[in-house]
Amino acid sequence: MKRTRNLGQLLALGLVTLLLTGLLAACGDSTATTTTVASTTAAVVGTTAAGATTAASAAAAKTTTAAGTTATGATTVAAGTTTAASATTVAAGATTAASATTTAAVAAPTPTAVAPIPQPAGSVKITFWYGLTGALGNVVQQTVNKYNSSQSKYYVEAIQQPSYDDTINKLNTSLAGATLPNVAQIYDIGTQRMIDTKKILPVQDFIDKEQLNIISDLEPAVASYYTVGGKLYSMPFNSSAPVMYFDKNAFKEVGLDPEKKIWTYDEVLEAAKKLVKKDASGKIIRGGVDFTLYSWIFEQELATQGAVFAAPDNGRNARATNLAFNNDAGTNWLNFLKKIQDDGLGRSWGRDGGANSSTRDAKFVTGETAITFNSIAGLRGYISSAAQAGGKVDVGVAYIPRPTGAKGGVIIGGASFWITNTGTPEQQAASWDFVKWTALPEIQAYWSSNTGYYPIRKGAYDVQEMKDTLAKYPQFNVAIEQLRATEPSSATQGAVFGTFVSTRQAIEGAMEQFLAGKFPTAKAALDDAASKSNDTLSEYNSTVK
Questions:
Q1: What mean pLDDT comes out for the span 479-490?
Q2: pLDDT above 90 as % of the chain
């Protein structure tokens, strides 16, 4: 009987992980800015000695190229910064952060693709490349279908790419030919690279020509990110930011305030001392704070402290020529994470992505982690998965933590729509008509309500669909408050430069080595990453004329 019950628990946890894989969106917003979900393999892994279970999924390796730097990675869950994970082509397999034996595997269904509607006769067709897949990719196609059904003058042919990375890389390789799309969805950190193509029609030019009152209704933090040199280059579409997730039930259990929104590093450390649970051997069975080593979160922590990531001014008024993340703000975050680990208050699951992200998420929704950090776009996945896991966890949301006295805010992650200068004048007009339509408050309310991203328009919150969504997910209001509490500055605008992907990899490598004790100080680890990243940036800048 005991073995049967354990198998049932394993199967349930496997389903939780698969649900997370399909629902957690991210980021930057997220790890998927450096890796691609090509396929997802989910497995339920059991450790017989401790009786513990770990759900994990492995993504197929792929190659990402940014300014001559190639990286191979795997991811299942995205949050920030960049794209959302999806579950596709699932097979039985096993991946775990610790040694374990495979006891069961659960196959997840592949989402049925949404079919496009037929093109009306005589309409002007444009092509639109997008990098979201799975359930989120379906909502993109549904949105395109809504546009195509709303009028018959223009027709958008939506062409799905395997990932954000593949979208921008395919676009860059197409620059010399005539195969560019009319509109492309590009992740946040591709901003400088898109500007450098010199194949872009800034949306600001269209807005000014029509004297439209759009920018004043954009969320300031969102508009600020995609504004470079005082010009809005692309139209934001899917935007997110990170939050601190916590288990309200665990907080109540140890006498912590589950309604507190802003936490300092010191307060989180004190909370973790109360929240952490260990068995008789001293092994952590509930982490006070568990985390992955995530560059997107690192960047946010600089912004909360008013520190720039790149100089001058995060590349906002002139091309960034120097990466400056090896500052006091950066070392503060690394030292905070190392103290959690070294004091036995929680666990690092390693570099963000793949099985590590799956472990973080599965541990949180099953109550084995009290606090973690991820994109607000993952809220619905966490809530649904916690319910599937038995409802032990009551998901709470707070601002991301910051040092005492820090007055900064968060940086937007996600993606935006870029209009290229290809095609006929009619196609360029069609491109702007489509992009302008996607920014309507009612369309943004629809998008947000069906995905979990922020609406980019303040007016979307007046739409009944969005009001209903907020009533269903009140935790989302905390993320909105955090976003709107962010004061505009070059730090909270976020950095723009052409080698962001490889720089994120360098930072995560430095974090990993520092927590493993391979660097004597956080400053030394970040100095090493900055030196390597500056070499790559200098090489990239030398190629741009």
A1: 94
A2: 77
Question: 3-state DSSP call for residue 45?
Answer: strand
The pLDDT, as a whole number, for residue 313 is: 96
Length of the chain: 545
Q: pTM here?
A: 0.83
Same domain? 377 vs 446: no
**Quick check: 224 pLDDT over 60?**
yes
Query: What are the structure tokens assigned to 180, written together?
Result: 């560019």
Whether residue 484 is contained in a domain is answered as no
Residue written as token pair 């500056």: 534
Task: Please list, residue by residue across 466-503, b when 16 or more beta carbons sit within 10 angstroms of its beta carbon and e when fewer do.
Answer: beebeeebebbebbbebbeebeebbbbbbbbbbbbbbb
Q: How far is CA 258 from CA 235, 287, 365, in A?
A: 36, 17, 17
Residues 461 and 326 in one domain: no
Comparing 498 with 83, the larger pLDDT belongs to: 498
**pLDDT in the model for residue 371:** 98
Note whether 465 and 519 are same-domain residues.
Answer: no
Residue pLDDT, tens place only, 289-313: 999 999 999 999 999 999 999 999 9
What is the pLDDT, as a whole number, of residue 109? 60
Q: Measuring CA to CA, which residue among 158, 144, 226, 145 is closest to residue 187?
A: 226
161 close to 184: Cβ distance less than 8 angstroms: no
Domain end residue (candidates: 104, 136, 167): 104
* Co-location of 384 and 438 in the same domain: no
Amino acid 111: pLDDT:
82
Average pLDDT for 121-139: 96
Q: Give yes or no for a contact between 458 and 445, defined as CB atoms under 8 angstroms apart.
A: no
Say how many C-beta atoms besides its own lie within 10 A of residue 133's C-beta: 26
Report pLDDT digits (tens) over 35-46: 333 333 333 333
Residue 113 lies in a domain: no
Alpha carbons 345 and 342: distance in angstroms, whole number: 8
How many structural domains are present in the chain?
3
- Between the alpha carbon of residue 45 and those of residues 25, 155, 233, the distances in Å are 24, 47, 46
- Report the alpha-carbon distance of residue 450 to residue 443 in Å, rounded: 11
Residues 24 and 60 in one domain: yes
To which residue do tokens 């709303």 refer? Answer: 150
In a shared domain, residues 311 and 379: yes
SS3 184: strand
